[in-house]
Fold:
Amino acid sequence: MTSTTPTSHPAQQEPEVISLLAAGRLLGMGRTKAYRLAKAGGFPCRVLRIGGRYAVPVRGLRALLDHMNEGGSESRPAREDG
Structure:
């Protein structure tokens, strides 16, 4: 008996780029700030200009988020009051 379940799901692959708005939200910033930083070249990761739109490569955004998580609360010494 053969299975009809596909072994790979090409429709569920992650996109190579996401919108600037989505990337900004992941970084905790609003629409205005994200677009202002992108226009000025100050967005914290690489931004592509495709026609009249901005796109952020997922790979670079993920690397930035991973780097931010490495410096999280686990690596900070505990505060002692007293």
In short: The mean pLDDT is 83. The longest strand covers residues 53-57. The helical segments are 20-26, 31-40, 58-70.
